[in-house]
Amino acid sequence: MEWYLPLIWAGVIGTAVALYVILDGFDLGLGLLFPFTRSESERDQIVRTIAPFWDGNETWLVLGGGGLFVAFPWAYAVIMPAFYIPVITMLLALVFRGVAFEFRHIAKSSKKYWNFAFWAGSLVATLSQGFVLGGLIQGVKVENRAFAGGAFDWATPFALVCALGLTAGYGLLGATWLMMKAEGPVAERARGQAKVMLAAVMILMGIVSLWTPLAFERIAERWFSTPNIFLLWPVPVAAVLLAWATWHWLDAGRDVLPFFASVGLFFLGYFGLVISSFPYLVPPSLTVWDTAAHPSSQIFMLVGTLIMLPIILTYTAYSYWLFRGKVPEGQGYH
Protein backbone atom coordinates (compact mmCIF):
# COMPACT_ATOMS: atom_id res chain seq x y z
CA MET A 1 0.00 0.00 0.00
CA GLU A 2 1.22 3.47 -0.85
CA TRP A 3 1.91 4.74 2.66
CA TYR A 4 1.45 8.40 1.76
CA LEU A 5 -2.12 8.15 0.43
CA PRO A 6 -3.77 7.75 3.86
CA LEU A 7 -1.76 10.74 5.08
CA ILE A 8 -3.00 12.87 2.18
CA TRP A 9 -6.59 11.83 2.82
CA ALA A 10 -6.18 12.44 6.55
CA GLY A 11 -5.03 15.96 5.67
CA VAL A 12 -8.01 16.52 3.34
CA ILE A 13 -10.53 15.28 5.90
CA GLY A 14 -8.82 17.12 8.73
CA THR A 15 -8.95 20.35 6.73
CA ALA A 16 -12.64 19.83 5.91
CA VAL A 17 -13.48 19.21 9.57
CA ALA A 18 -11.52 22.29 10.68
CA LEU A 19 -13.26 24.48 8.10
CA TYR A 20 -16.64 23.11 9.09
CA VAL A 21 -16.03 23.76 12.78
CA ILE A 22 -15.00 27.36 12.08
CA LEU A 23 -17.48 28.29 9.36
CA ASP A 24 -20.56 26.48 10.63
CA GLY A 25 -19.40 27.13 14.19
CA PHE A 26 -20.06 30.85 14.09
CA ASP A 27 -23.52 30.50 12.57
CA LEU A 28 -24.43 27.78 15.09
CA GLY A 29 -23.11 30.23 17.69
CA LEU A 30 -25.52 32.89 16.41
CA GLY A 31 -28.36 30.45 16.95
CA LEU A 32 -27.17 29.88 20.51
CA LEU A 33 -27.30 33.66 21.13
CA PHE A 34 -30.89 34.01 19.87
CA PRO A 35 -32.49 33.93 23.37
CA PHE A 36 -30.41 36.95 24.44
CA THR A 37 -31.87 39.28 21.81
CA ARG A 38 -34.46 41.89 22.77
CA SER A 39 -36.61 42.26 19.67
CA GLU A 40 -37.58 40.62 16.42
CA SER A 41 -35.64 43.25 14.48
CA GLU A 42 -32.46 42.25 16.34
CA ARG A 43 -33.03 38.59 15.49
CA ASP A 44 -33.60 39.55 11.87
CA GLN A 45 -30.35 41.53 11.85
CA ILE A 46 -28.45 38.52 13.24
CA VAL A 47 -29.86 36.23 10.57
CA ARG A 48 -29.01 38.71 7.82
CA THR A 49 -25.31 38.61 8.78
CA ILE A 50 -25.14 34.91 7.84
CA ALA A 51 -27.83 34.66 5.15
CA PRO A 52 -25.35 34.63 2.22
CA PHE A 53 -23.05 32.05 3.82
CA TRP A 54 -24.79 29.53 6.06
CA ASP A 55 -25.77 26.97 3.38
CA GLY A 56 -22.24 26.84 1.97
CA ASN A 57 -20.71 26.45 5.42
CA GLU A 58 -22.17 22.95 5.76
CA THR A 59 -20.43 21.83 2.55
CA TRP A 60 -17.40 20.96 4.66
CA LEU A 61 -19.41 18.56 6.82
CA VAL A 62 -20.40 16.65 3.69
CA LEU A 63 -16.78 16.55 2.49
CA GLY A 64 -15.54 15.36 5.87
CA GLY A 65 -18.14 12.61 6.23
CA GLY A 66 -17.97 11.57 2.58
CA GLY A 67 -14.18 11.56 2.62
CA LEU A 68 -14.16 9.33 5.70
CA PHE A 69 -16.50 6.85 3.99
CA VAL A 70 -14.44 6.79 0.80
CA ALA A 71 -10.87 6.89 2.12
CA PHE A 72 -11.22 5.12 5.48
CA PRO A 73 -14.18 2.72 5.22
CA TRP A 74 -13.04 0.65 8.23
CA ALA A 75 -12.98 3.77 10.39
CA TYR A 76 -16.42 4.78 9.10
CA ALA A 77 -17.73 1.29 9.88
CA VAL A 78 -16.53 1.61 13.48
CA ILE A 79 -17.29 5.27 14.17
CA MET A 80 -20.86 5.30 12.90
CA PRO A 81 -22.16 2.45 15.12
CA ALA A 82 -20.28 3.93 18.07
CA PHE A 83 -21.95 7.34 17.61
CA TYR A 84 -25.23 6.56 15.85
CA ILE A 85 -27.31 8.42 18.43
CA PRO A 86 -25.38 11.74 18.57
CA VAL A 87 -24.67 11.73 14.81
CA ILE A 88 -28.30 11.14 13.81
CA THR A 89 -29.43 13.64 16.45
CA MET A 90 -26.99 16.20 15.03
CA LEU A 91 -28.18 15.70 11.46
CA LEU A 92 -31.85 15.96 12.43
CA ALA A 93 -31.10 19.11 14.44
CA LEU A 94 -29.30 20.67 11.46
CA VAL A 95 -32.28 19.86 9.23
CA PHE A 96 -34.68 21.26 11.84
CA ARG A 97 -32.53 24.37 12.15
CA GLY A 98 -32.34 24.82 8.37
CA VAL A 99 -36.12 24.63 8.01
CA ALA A 100 -36.53 27.13 10.84
CA PHE A 101 -34.03 29.50 9.19
CA GLU A 102 -36.16 29.63 6.03
CA PHE A 103 -39.62 29.52 7.61
CA ARG A 104 -39.06 32.25 10.18
CA HIS A 105 -38.47 34.65 7.29
CA ILE A 106 -42.00 34.23 5.95
CA ALA A 107 -43.87 33.28 9.13
CA LYS A 108 -46.11 35.82 10.84
CA SER A 109 -48.13 34.46 13.75
CA SER A 110 -45.82 31.43 14.20
CA LYS A 111 -42.50 33.27 14.03
CA LYS A 112 -41.75 32.80 17.74
CA TYR A 113 -41.96 29.02 17.33
CA TRP A 114 -39.50 29.07 14.42
CA ASN A 115 -37.18 31.26 16.50
CA PHE A 116 -37.27 28.62 19.23
CA ALA A 117 -36.64 25.90 16.62
CA PHE A 118 -33.63 27.78 15.27
CA TRP A 119 -32.16 28.08 18.77
CA ALA A 120 -32.98 24.51 19.77
CA GLY A 121 -31.59 23.07 16.53
CA SER A 122 -28.36 25.02 17.02
CA LEU A 123 -28.01 23.89 20.64
CA VAL A 124 -28.76 20.22 19.99
CA ALA A 125 -26.45 20.06 16.95
CA THR A 126 -23.62 21.67 18.93
CA LEU A 127 -24.00 19.40 21.95
CA SER A 128 -24.15 16.35 19.68
CA GLN A 129 -20.90 17.35 17.99
CA GLY A 130 -19.31 17.83 21.40
CA PHE A 131 -20.35 14.38 22.57
CA VAL A 132 -18.87 12.82 19.41
CA LEU A 133 -15.64 14.75 20.01
CA GLY A 134 -15.46 13.65 23.63
CA GLY A 135 -16.27 10.07 22.73
CA LEU A 136 -13.48 9.95 20.16
CA ILE A 137 -10.92 11.43 22.56
CA GLN A 138 -11.72 8.92 25.28
CA GLY A 139 -11.55 6.06 22.77
CA VAL A 140 -13.79 3.54 21.03
CA LYS A 141 -13.91 -0.14 21.96
CA VAL A 142 -12.85 -2.20 18.95
CA GLU A 143 -12.53 -5.96 18.50
CA ASN A 144 -11.58 -7.62 15.20
CA ARG A 145 -11.76 -4.19 13.50
CA ALA A 146 -15.43 -3.79 14.47
CA PHE A 147 -17.20 -1.73 17.11
CA ALA A 148 -17.60 -3.80 20.26
CA GLY A 149 -18.99 -1.27 22.72
CA GLY A 150 -22.44 -0.11 23.77
CA ALA A 151 -24.83 2.40 22.25
CA PHE A 152 -24.18 4.93 25.05
CA ASP A 153 -20.42 4.61 25.51
CA TRP A 154 -20.11 8.22 24.36
CA ALA A 155 -22.37 9.49 27.19
CA THR A 156 -19.75 10.17 29.88
CA PRO A 157 -18.94 13.13 32.15
CA PHE A 158 -15.79 13.78 30.11
CA ALA A 159 -17.79 13.95 26.86
CA LEU A 160 -20.29 16.28 28.56
CA VAL A 161 -17.48 18.69 29.47
CA CYS A 162 -16.27 18.56 25.85
CA ALA A 163 -19.83 19.29 24.65
CA LEU A 164 -20.14 22.27 26.99
CA GLY A 165 -16.72 23.53 25.89
CA LEU A 166 -17.70 23.33 22.23
CA THR A 167 -20.97 25.14 22.98
CA ALA A 168 -19.06 27.97 24.67
CA GLY A 169 -16.60 28.02 21.76
CA TYR A 170 -19.35 28.32 19.15
CA GLY A 171 -20.95 31.04 21.27
CA LEU A 172 -17.63 32.90 21.28
CA LEU A 173 -17.36 32.63 17.49
CA GLY A 174 -20.95 33.82 17.10
CA ALA A 175 -20.49 36.81 19.42
CA THR A 176 -17.24 37.94 17.80
CA TRP A 177 -18.82 37.48 14.35
CA LEU A 178 -21.61 39.86 15.36
CA MET A 179 -19.05 42.41 16.55
CA MET A 180 -17.40 42.23 13.14
CA LYS A 181 -20.53 42.11 10.96
CA ALA A 182 -23.33 43.95 12.79
CA GLU A 183 -23.99 47.48 13.95
CA GLY A 184 -25.98 48.96 16.81
CA PRO A 185 -27.13 47.33 20.07
CA VAL A 186 -26.63 43.79 18.72
CA ALA A 187 -22.91 44.36 18.20
CA GLU A 188 -22.52 46.23 21.50
CA ARG A 189 -24.20 43.45 23.48
CA ALA A 190 -22.12 40.84 21.65
CA ARG A 191 -18.95 42.34 23.13
CA GLY A 192 -20.07 41.48 26.65
CA GLN A 193 -21.30 38.06 25.52
CA ALA A 194 -17.91 37.38 23.94
CA LYS A 195 -16.16 38.02 27.27
CA VAL A 196 -18.44 35.56 29.06
CA MET A 197 -17.94 32.94 26.36
CA LEU A 198 -14.17 33.47 26.28
CA ALA A 199 -13.93 32.93 30.04
CA ALA A 200 -16.06 29.77 29.74
CA VAL A 201 -13.95 28.48 26.86
CA MET A 202 -10.68 28.88 28.73
CA ILE A 203 -12.04 27.29 31.91
CA LEU A 204 -13.47 24.29 30.05
CA MET A 205 -10.44 24.00 27.79
CA GLY A 206 -8.26 23.96 30.89
CA ILE A 207 -10.40 21.23 32.49
CA VAL A 208 -10.20 19.06 29.35
CA SER A 209 -6.45 19.69 29.02
CA LEU A 210 -5.88 18.47 32.58
CA TRP A 211 -8.42 15.65 32.43
CA THR A 212 -7.10 13.97 29.28
CA PRO A 213 -3.54 13.18 30.45
CA LEU A 214 -4.81 12.14 33.88
CA ALA A 215 -7.45 9.78 32.50
CA PHE A 216 -5.82 8.48 29.32
CA GLU A 217 -2.30 7.16 29.56
CA ARG A 218 -1.66 7.29 25.82
CA ILE A 219 -2.30 11.06 25.81
CA ALA A 220 -0.12 11.65 28.86
CA GLU A 221 2.71 9.76 27.16
CA ARG A 222 2.30 11.79 23.99
CA TRP A 223 2.48 15.16 25.75
CA PHE A 224 4.83 14.56 28.68
CA SER A 225 7.41 12.10 27.38
CA THR A 226 10.76 13.39 26.21
CA PRO A 227 11.51 14.98 23.82
CA ASN A 228 7.80 15.69 23.14
CA ILE A 229 7.35 17.86 26.22
CA PHE A 230 10.05 20.25 25.00
CA LEU A 231 8.57 20.41 21.50
CA LEU A 232 4.88 20.75 22.38
CA TRP A 233 4.82 23.22 25.27
CA PRO A 234 4.38 26.22 22.92
CA VAL A 235 0.86 25.01 22.00
CA PRO A 236 -0.83 25.59 25.40
CA VAL A 237 1.27 28.70 26.00
CA ALA A 238 0.15 30.13 22.64
CA ALA A 239 -3.49 29.40 23.56
CA VAL A 240 -3.18 31.32 26.83
CA LEU A 241 -1.45 34.27 25.16
CA LEU A 242 -4.03 34.38 22.37
CA ALA A 243 -6.88 34.30 24.90
CA TRP A 244 -5.26 37.21 26.75
CA ALA A 245 -4.92 39.12 23.47
CA THR A 246 -8.56 38.42 22.63
CA TRP A 247 -9.69 39.82 25.99
CA HIS A 248 -7.49 42.89 25.49
CA TRP A 249 -8.96 43.52 22.03
CA LEU A 250 -12.48 43.13 23.39
CA ASP A 251 -11.70 45.76 26.03
CA ALA A 252 -10.08 48.02 23.44
CA GLY A 253 -13.23 48.06 21.29
CA ARG A 254 -11.72 46.25 18.32
CA ASP A 255 -14.28 44.72 15.95
CA VAL A 256 -12.34 42.38 13.66
CA LEU A 257 -9.37 41.05 15.62
CA PRO A 258 -11.42 39.23 18.31
CA PHE A 259 -13.09 37.04 15.68
CA PHE A 260 -9.83 35.97 14.08
CA ALA A 261 -8.27 35.46 17.50
CA SER A 262 -11.20 33.19 18.39
CA VAL A 263 -10.61 31.26 15.19
CA GLY A 264 -6.97 30.96 16.22
CA LEU A 265 -8.01 29.51 19.59
CA PHE A 266 -10.06 26.88 17.78
CA PHE A 267 -7.14 25.96 15.55
CA LEU A 268 -4.82 25.63 18.54
CA GLY A 269 -7.35 23.40 20.30
CA TYR A 270 -7.79 21.36 17.14
CA PHE A 271 -4.03 21.05 16.74
CA GLY A 272 -3.80 19.85 20.32
CA LEU A 273 -6.35 17.11 19.60
CA VAL A 274 -4.40 16.03 16.52
CA ILE A 275 -1.22 15.83 18.60
CA SER A 276 -3.04 13.74 21.20
CA SER A 277 -4.49 11.21 18.75
CA PHE A 278 -2.54 11.02 15.47
CA PRO A 279 -2.02 8.61 13.73
CA TYR A 280 -5.04 6.93 15.33
CA LEU A 281 -8.22 7.63 13.40
CA VAL A 282 -10.21 5.48 15.83
CA PRO A 283 -8.39 5.90 19.14
CA PRO A 284 -6.78 4.01 20.70
CA SER A 285 -6.44 1.08 18.28
CA LEU A 286 -6.95 1.84 14.56
CA THR A 287 -4.56 4.10 12.64
CA VAL A 288 -5.05 5.82 9.30
CA TRP A 289 -3.20 2.92 7.66
CA ASP A 290 -5.27 0.25 9.42
CA THR A 291 -8.54 1.73 8.16
CA ALA A 292 -7.54 2.95 4.68
CA ALA A 293 -9.32 1.90 1.50
CA HIS A 294 -7.51 0.22 -1.38
CA PRO A 295 -5.00 2.61 -3.02
CA SER A 296 -6.90 2.54 -6.32
CA SER A 297 -10.04 3.82 -4.58
CA GLN A 298 -8.11 6.53 -2.79
CA ILE A 299 -6.40 7.70 -5.97
CA PHE A 300 -9.65 7.70 -7.98
CA MET A 301 -11.48 9.85 -5.42
CA LEU A 302 -8.44 12.02 -4.77
CA VAL A 303 -8.34 13.14 -8.42
CA GLY A 304 -11.91 14.42 -8.21
CA THR A 305 -11.31 15.99 -4.81
CA LEU A 306 -8.21 17.86 -5.96
CA ILE A 307 -10.21 19.27 -8.88
CA MET A 308 -13.23 20.32 -6.83
CA LEU A 309 -11.52 21.50 -3.66
CA PRO A 310 -9.90 24.62 -5.20
CA ILE A 311 -13.24 25.49 -6.82
CA ILE A 312 -15.06 25.24 -3.49
CA LEU A 313 -12.37 27.25 -1.70
CA THR A 314 -12.41 29.93 -4.40
CA TYR A 315 -16.20 30.20 -4.33
CA THR A 316 -16.22 30.37 -0.53
CA ALA A 317 -13.56 33.07 -0.42
CA TYR A 318 -15.35 35.05 -3.15
CA SER A 319 -18.70 34.92 -1.34
CA TYR A 320 -17.17 36.20 1.90
CA TRP A 321 -15.38 38.97 0.00
CA LEU A 322 -18.52 39.91 -1.96
CA PHE A 323 -20.67 40.20 1.17
CA ARG A 324 -18.06 41.97 3.25
CA GLY A 325 -18.86 44.88 5.53
CA LYS A 326 -21.31 45.39 8.36
CA VAL A 327 -25.07 44.87 8.34
CA PRO A 328 -26.84 47.97 9.68
CA GLU A 329 -30.00 47.80 11.77
CA GLY A 330 -33.07 47.11 9.65
CA GLN A 331 -31.04 46.42 6.51
CA GLY A 332 -29.43 43.47 4.75
CA TYR A 333 -27.03 42.85 1.90
CA HIS A 334 -28.07 44.24 -1.47
Could you please describe the fold and organization of this structure?
There is one protein chain. The protein has helices at 4-32, 40-50, 54-57, 59-71, 73-82, 84-106, 111-138, 157-181, 185-215, 217-224, 228-232, 234-251, 257-277, 295-322; strands at residues 142-143, 146-147, 280-282, 286-287. It has a single domain, classed as Up-down Bundle (Formate dehydrogenase/DMSO reductase fold), CATH 1.20.1630. It has 14 helices and 4 strands. The chain is mainly alpha-helical.
N- to C-terminal distance: 52 Å
Element order: H for helix, E for strand: HHHHHHHEEHHHHHHEEH
**Strand segment tally:** 4
Q: Given this structure, which CATH class is correct?
A: Mainly Alpha
Provide the gyration radius in Å.
20 Å
Question: How would you describe the shape?
Answer: globular
What is the count of helical runs?
14
Sketch the major β-sheet.
Answer: 2 strands, antiparallel
The largest sheet has its strands arranged as 1-2
CATH topology: Formate dehydrogenase/DMSO reductase fold
Number of domains as seen in the coordinates? 1
As residue ranges, the low-confidence spans are none
* Fraction in beta strands: under 5%
Q: Which features would summarize this protein structure in a list?
A:
single chain, 334 residues, mainly alpha, Formate dehydrogenase/DMSO reductase fold, two-stranded antiparallel sheet
